[in-house]
Specification:
By secondary structure, the protein is α+β, with helices and mostly antiparallel strands. It contains ten helices and ten strands. The chain has one domain: 2-Layer Sandwich (Ribosomal Protein S5, domain 2). It binds 4-diphosphocytidyl-2-C-methyl-D-erythritol and adenosine-5'-triphosphate (ATP). One of its GO terms (molecular function) is 4-(cytidine 5'-diphospho)-2-C-methyl-D-erythritol kinase activity.
Length: about 280
């Protein structure tokens, strides 16, 4: 049995620099991981099974099963596995939970089935499952360009974050097809980006469409510099200490769901796989 984490990611900034002919968008975004996320277990078995199932997601649509099938098809392997999932990350929260589960599955089954694929090969397989899968396979904080698949390693500060979930599911395709989404941020070098104010080009639009996001973000901004991650809905505040972040969480409006976690430039997945 192999147990591996599937951490959340934050987009510390996210700029949309254009739209390609295939409808996908060119981005400039800074990915960092946090030490909080889902957990997956992998055991050798005859069939391919996942438990528990996710409510509302048929097993064959689950990115974990999709990743496993893709790996079988790519390598011609007929091995099976029983995969267990401890789901902690909200779905559709902009934390990349599904993509992270897929990446951990590719990395975990590559090990369990002793396939010997390299990380670059696993990352390009992962891109077929979602734009965020490669960075989770890569496992290092990165400045991403293109559709989010061209990486330059980056070493941003590793503060404590308070991540809050406004409780609404924001559809990534809906954000990217919205006529009001700004798509014309200038392309800058990593250094220019790091030294300019950090923003998320999706934030104003998502706040407009989902007042719950606007409300929670303006509450959080009273405590710390804060932004939305990905296409939402989760928002994060940046703190100097765990205590300060926990203190803000304790004062959050009744019913607010969130967690405190530390930024990690090396993903907990990479740390765990190195230790196996
Ligand atoms: C915006 C980010 O959250 C940044 O981390 C991600 O790039 C989104 O990654 P994701 O949720 O894995 O997205 P995917 O499942 O690959 O794509 C969902 C949809 O978002 C749109 N999409 C996604 C990524 C991208 N660079 N341009 C896009 O236009 C496409 O309409 C696509 O059909
Ligand atoms: N293992 C999985 N975990 C979560 N969602 C999954 C999984 N498999 C399939 N999905 C589907 O993917 C959708 C998006 O989930 P996910 O948690 O990756 O969103 P997200 O955090 O907004 O991602 P991103 O930041 O990449 O936009 C879910 O609504 C669900 O239908």
């Amino acid at each position: 049995m192999i147990c591996l984490p599937a951490p959340a990611k934050l987009n510390l900034f996210l700029y949309i620099t254009g739209r390609r002919d295939d409808g996908y968008h060119n981005l400039q975004t800074l990915f960092q991981f946090v030490d909080f996320g889902d957990e997956l277990g992998f055991e050798t078995a005859d069939e391919l099974t996942l438990s528990p199932e996710l409510p509302g997601v048929a097993p064959e649509s689950n990115l974990i099963i999709k990743a496993a099938r893709l790996l079988q098809a790519h390598t011609g392997s007929h091995k099976g596995a029983h995969i267990t999932l401890t789901k902690r990350l909200p779905m559709g929260g902009g934390l990349g939970g599904g993509s992270s589960d897929a990446a951990t599955t590719l990395v975990g089954l590559n090990r369990l089935w002793q396939l010997g694929l390299g990380n670059d090969e696993l990352a390009s397989l992962g891109l077929q499952l979602g734009a965020d899968v490669p960075v989770f396979v890569h496992g290092r904080a990165a400045f991403a360009e293109g559709v989010g698949d061209i990486f330059t390693d980056a070493v941003p500060p590793e503060p404590w974050y308070l991540v809050l979930n406004p409780g609404v599911e924001v559809s990534t395709p809906a954000v990217f097809t919205d006529p009001e989404l700004p798509r014309n941020s200038p392309v800058m070098s990593l250094e220019q980006r790091l030294n300019s104010p950090w923003q998320n080009d999706c934030e104003a639009l998502v706040k407009k469409r989902h007042p719950e996001v606007a409300k929670l973000l303006s509450w959080l901004l009273e405590y710390a510099p804060s932004r939305m991650t990905g296409t939402g809905a989760c928002v994060f505040g940046t703190f100097d200490s765990r205590k300060a972040a926990e203190n803000a969480l304790e004062n959050a409006p009744a019913g607010t769901v969130g967690f405190v976690a530390k930024g990690c430039n090396q993903s907990p997945l990479l740390t765990a796989i190195k230790a196996l």
